[in-house]
Amino acid sequence: MTPRTFTILGIVAVISVTAATLALGMRPQFLEFRADGERVFPSLLENADQVASFQVRQGNDQMTFVHSDKGWVLSESGGYAIDNRLAAKVILGLASLEFLEAKTKRKEKLAKLRLEDPLSEKSQARLLTFVDKNDKEIANLILGRDNYSLPATMTGGIYIRRPNEDQAWLAKGAVEIGGEPRDWLVRNIIDIPLEQIKHVRFSHPDGETFTIVGDLSVKDGFKLESVPEGMKLKTSYGPRSIANVVNNFLLNDVRRQTELTLTDTEASVSEFTLVNGDVVKLELWDKKPRNWMRVIVSGESQQAAAIAKRTEGWVYDIPDYQAELLRKRFTELIEAEKPAS
């Protein structure tokens, strides 16, 4: 190598280093020390037990999860219990995120990654914030679209952005956040097997009543009482399907009874009498788009005591398909018999 060539290469090297230094100096500060594989929140994993609550905000919606002496609860649902494993999974997920690659910092492209303003109307981005017992912020991050196609990873990745910064990142890891209360809450309200049901009496606000009775001598094990002459069941399984609604009965959402104004005379009532003498009464109000239901149980069994302990003081928003079964009318279950040919 000639002296001239060596000198030229040296000048090029100096220019390259200088340019790189200037370029780094022009980047937002937190980019200077972000390297592939570095955790987004380096100390969060070791301090996960300091998280006293976390909040998810998206558009006009928010869910606030608080760690109480009985476990994790959802504030907006009256402080009802959520699945503790889901809360732990979110905390561990955020604490384990690692930077992989810087992406766009152009605002007009953030929406493609679902990293637009999370508080704007119809936003697809989610703002996740952790605080400690003194309401001091521990971590907050905007979560965007998942990326499941990352090679050599078990978890895939997710696009992220820090609030008040435009820089988007692809991070390794996953933070699974349900969008509705039912994705978090302990959903089971009651779970009564069919074989425990003796009969069910239904009454509607307009005075209509009818009864379904367990009867092993009929097909599907339940019959509708007082079917008029010349009429028959539309389907043999109709009464059974209604009685079975209390088997694995699930909620969508829940409120404390004191938070709602519900009038007894407006409720459809279903009284499930069990073979052991327990009575489970379900009172249902049609408050579109909600189906609010209250559970009242009487009886001496351990099962009755457990149901009462779990449901007393609460009103449940139940899925439409369950509400429709409890609102069934007598005439919906029967039809005219076909004349003999």
Topology:
Layout: H1 3-26, E1 53-58, E2 61-68, E3 71-74, E4 80-81, H2 84-96, E5 98-102, H3 107-110, E6 126-131, E7 137-147, E8 157-161, E9 168-172, E10 188-190, E11 197-203, E12 209-214, E13 222-224, E14 231-233, H4 238-243, E15 249-250, E16 253-256, E17 268-274, E18 279-287, E19 290-298, H5 302-311, E20 314-317, H6 320-326, H7 330-333, E21 334-336
Antiparallel strand pairs: 1-2, 1-6, 2-3, 3-4, 5-9, 6-7, 7-8, 8-9, 10-15, 11-12, 11-17, 12-13, 14-21, 16-20, 17-18, 18-19, 19-20
Structure explained in plain terms:
The chain is of the alpha+beta class and 341 residues long. The chain folds into two domains: 30-182, no CATH class; 188-336, no CATH class. 20% of the residues lie in helices and 33% in strands. The protein contains seven helices and 21 strands. The protein has helices at residues 3-26, 84-96, 107-110, 238-243, 302-311, 320-326, 330-333; strands at 53-58, 61-68, 71-74, 80-81, 98-102, 126-131, 137-147, 157-161, 168-172, 188-190, 197-203, 209-214, 222-224, 231-233, 249-250, 253-256, 268-274, 279-287, 290-298, 314-317, 334-336. The radius of gyration is 30 Å and the shape is elongated.
